[in-house]
C-alpha cells in the first residue's frame, strides 16, 4: 500500500491551499483503544486519518451501542466537522480500533479552510454524503435483518485470512445488539463446527451459509 500524505489527498489543489493545509496540520500518533471523542465534548481539533481507523458509535438510553461509521484511510470525521462548523458539542463516541497515524487541524483553522477553499469543502461534503448513505444502510439492517443474519454478515465482511480479531463486546457494538446475544450466537456457530473461538479472536473453520 502506497504511503498517503496530505498533499496526495488533494492532488489537484492549488499551491495556496496545500501550503495552508500543511502549515495548519499537526501530526498525531494514537494507540488502539484511544477514545478521541465522546458525547458533550467540545471539538477543538479536526482529524485526518492517514493510517488505521476510528470507529464512531453512540449509546442509546437503554444502554445499547449502535455503530455509526468508520473513519478510514484518507478520511475525516463528519460529526467533528459539523460540530466545529455549527459550534455544538460532539454527539457520539469515537475510538481508535487500530493504531492511527494522521493529522489534526485546530477548529478555527478548519473553519477557515472550509470558508476559503472549495477543495476542503468538497472533501468534507464527500464524507457527509458517504457516511449519511452508510447510516441509511445501518438503519435498514437494524430494522429489517435478524441479529443472527447481521452477525454472519459481520463475520464474512471482517475476516482477514479466516480470522477476526475482535471481542464479543466490539462485535455487539458494531451490529447493534447486546454482548450476551453475540456470545450465545457465536457459541451456536462454534458447536455447529463453523468457528473456533478463543479470547479476542474468532477463526472461521468452514463457510457459513
Automatic annotation (TrEMBL):
Keywords: DNA-binding, Transcription, Transcription regulation. This is Crp/Fnr family transcription regulator. One of its GO terms (molecular function) is DNA binding. One of its GO terms (cellular component) is cytosol. It comes from the Bacteria. Residues 9-76 form the Cyclic nucleotide-binding domain. SUPFAM superfamilies: cAMP-binding domain-like (SSF51206), Winged helix' DNA-binding domain (SSF46785). Residues 145-208 form the HTH crp-type domain. InterPro entries: cNMP-bd_dom (IPR000595), cNMP-bd_dom_sf (IPR018490), Env_Response_Regulators (IPR050397), HTH_CRP (IPR012318), RmlC-like_jellyroll (IPR014710), WH-like_DNA-bd_sf (IPR036388), WH_DNA-bd_sf (IPR036390). The keyword DNA-binding applies. CDD domains: CAP_ED (cd00038), HTH_CRP (cd00092). It holds the Pfam family HTH_Crp_2.
Amino acid at each position: 500500500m502506497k504511503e498517503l500524505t496530505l498533499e496526495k489527498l488533494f492532488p489537484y489543489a492549488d499551491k495556496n491551499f496545500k501550503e495552508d493545509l500543511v502549515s495548519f496540520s499537526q501530526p498525531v500518533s494514537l494507540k488502539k483503544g484511544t477514545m478521541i471523542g465522546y458525547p458533550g465534548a467540545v471539538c477543538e481539533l479536526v482529524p485526518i486519518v492517514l493510517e488505521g481507523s476510528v470507529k464512531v458509535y453512540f449509546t442509546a438510553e437503554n444502554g445499547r451501542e449502535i455503530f455509526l461509521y468508520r473513519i478510514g484511510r484518507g478520511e475525516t470525521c463528519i460529526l467533528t466537522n459539523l460540530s466545529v462548523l455549527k459550534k455544538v458539542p460532539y454527539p457520539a463516541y469515537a475510538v481508535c480500533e487500530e493504531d492511527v497515524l494522521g493529522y489534526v487541524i485546530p477548529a478555527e483553522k478548519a473553519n477557515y479552510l472550509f470558508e476559503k477553499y472549495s477543495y476542503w469543502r468538497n472533501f468534507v461534503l464527500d464524507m457527509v454524503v458517504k457516511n449519511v448513505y452508510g447510516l441509511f444502510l445501518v438503519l435498514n439492517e437494524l430494522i429489517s435483518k435478524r441479529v443472527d443474519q447481521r452477525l454472519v454478515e459481520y463475520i464474512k465482511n471482517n475476516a482477514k485470512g479466516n480470522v477476526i480479531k475482535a471481542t464479543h463486546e466490539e462485535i455487539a457494538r458494531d451490529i447493534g445488539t447486546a454482548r450476551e446475544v453475540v456470545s450465545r450466537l457465536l457459541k451456536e456457530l462454534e458447536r455447529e463446527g463453523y468457528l473456533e473461538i478463543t479470547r479476542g479472536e474468532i477463526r472461521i473453520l468452514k463457510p457459513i451459509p
